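Hey, I was hoping to borrow your eyes for a little while. A protein chain has come my way and I'm curious about its shape. Take your time with it, there's no hurry, and the full record follows here:
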Amino acid sequence: MNADFRAEFVRTPGSLKHFPALVLNADYRPLSYYPLSLWSWQDAIKAAWLDRVDIVAQYDHVVHSPSTHIRVPSVIVLKDFVQPHKRIAFTRFNLFLRDEFCCQYCGARGDLTFDHVIPRASGGRTSWENVVAACGRCNLQKGAKSLARSGLSLRRPPRVPQAEQLRNLGRKFPPGHLHASWLDFLYWDAELEA
C-alpha cells in the first residue's frame, strides 16, 4: 500500500514531520496503530519535563535551551495507563478501516465512498450493519436498488466491529515512515529470531 493512498485518510500535522515520538501506553503497546499514536517532539519533551512519560528511546538530534541540551525522544511511555475505548465511534474512517479500505462489492481500493446495503429509500438505516465501503463504480451501479436487483454481492456481511478488532486491523496499515527505534514496540507479537 503506497503512502499517497494512506495520506487520503490520515493527515499528518506539520509538527509531526520532523522527529515524531511514538506514544506507548503504560503496558508498552501503542495507544493506536492506525493512525499511529505519535506526538510532536515538542509535546514529547513537555510531557517528559512534566514527568508524565518515561523516555524509552531517543533520536540523535539535540534541542537546546539557554541552560539545557535535550536529546529528542523517539519513543515515550505514559506513566498512567489509559483505558482503551470499548465503544467504537461510527465514523467514515472506522468504517473504511473495518472494511480494510476495500470495496465490499468488487474489492477495489482507493476512491472509496460508502453504500447502504438496504437503500435508505427502502427504509435502510445508517448503521454498522447496513453500511459498507464501496468504490464509486459499484456505488453508482447499485444506486437505490437492492443487492439482488443490482447484480452485486457482498464480500462479507457488515457487522459492528469490536475495539480490539479495529486495533488489530490498523496494524496492517503502517505509516510511510517507521523509525528503527519504534519497530520493537509496533511488532511486539512478531516471532522472535532464534
